Sequence to fold (340 residues):
Amino acid sequence: MKARLAAVAAGALLLTGCGALDESGGTDTEAPEGATTVKVGYLHTVAVDNKLHYGLAEGHWADADLDIEATQFDTGIAVSQALVSGDIDVAIMGGVTSNFPAQGQGQIFMINSVETATARLYVQGDSDIQSVADLPGHTLVTTEGTTADIFLHAAMKKAGIARDTVNVVNAAMPDAVQAFVSGSADAIALWVPFDLRVAEGAPDAREIDDAGNYPEATVADGWIANNDWFEDNRDVAKQIASAWLDINEDYQADPEAALEIVHATAYEDQATLEDLQHQVEYMEDYSNEEWVEKYESGELLDIVGTAEQAFVELGGLPQYVEPETFFDTSIFLEAAEERE
Fold:
């Protein structure tokens, strides 16, 4: 079974590669002459890139004298490598926001959203697995180093299960779903909207747990700057944060309409509007005032730190470092204060 799953994963790598997928720098409103160019790499999931694309579509970045050159990447590793090499100035990442910067590979300066229950655990319809406690001796497929893996780790830890008692197989999530649907795995830890793909391919599959039951599995999706770029362009990072605040204010005024714009401009060929609407049910987004409170209270630092600790326990990080060393919360707070 493991060989079959490995073959599926290898096929995915051949098809998708692990670099940039495409560039999408076009906007409905072009940046004015003399605007500051910022090369932004992003992962294409709505919790990560919704404000990026909404700002492009509605001209907010251009209004802030920013010329955003956006490039899509398929993995956190790929976008992080591009960030470290200087191919991009800023990266927007998902769960790995708490990983690469903790290794000195970038400086977090803003959080885009908080994922509370996007990760979920499914088992085959005829499986004897009723809870996480029943996983030992079974094969589970997931994508290691992701939001789903952080959730799986938290769930197994709470249930008192050692990871080596479960045959955890790593695969890119589309291929993990394929393996599960084909019956090659007993369980799958995934993130939405891949639950919809499971429902389509294996309608008898059962959901038995989700990250909403584990506050320690909450992850923050963040904006991360190249270290050298950040050192020389702190003012530009604050300019980005200020524009983001304008974008968020507009977005929160009518989230449903804003999501429709994001879908039409960035997702129409990859996902249905219903897919995006499903995803946002399991993530948290806030008003500007609420975001400021979460920065000031240290809540966002705690979320980043808790996810970082999970990576340490999973072996993805050599040691824990305080989030304050790689997450500069002052950028957002200064930008918010200057808007008052």
